[in-house]
Specification:
Radius of gyration: 15 Å
Strand content: 25-35%
Bound molecules: zinc ion
Distance between the termini: 35 Å
Number of strands: 6
Structural class: mainly beta
Order of helices and strands: EEEEEE
Largest sheet: 2 strands, antiparallel
Helix content: under 10%
């Protein structure tokens, strides 16, 4: 039984869709493709920064930090 929690950001996939290209791996400007995305090097995915690429987190983390409490 794993000790960690399943990463809520990548759901254990260890990678997330690149926010720059939206997971396509390509960059486009006004509908015109301008080459591979530099952020993810054209893969469309990048390592999850929430779990560091492990797919699990040591403790439960909250992603919606903008939500105010109290
Ligand atoms: Zn990308
Ligand atoms: Zn993750």
């Amino acid at each position: 039984m794993p000790n960690g929690f399943l990463c809520p950001k990548c759901h254990g996939q260890r990678t997330i869709s690149c926010p720059i290209c939206g997971g396509t791996g390509k960059r486009s400007l006004a509908g015109i493709p301008i080459g591979a995305c530099k952020e993810c090097k054209g893969s469309g995915h990048e390592r999850c920064d929430a779990c560091g690429g492990s797919g699990e987190v040591e403790r439960e983390i909250e992603l919606n930090s903008t939500q105010t409490k109290g």
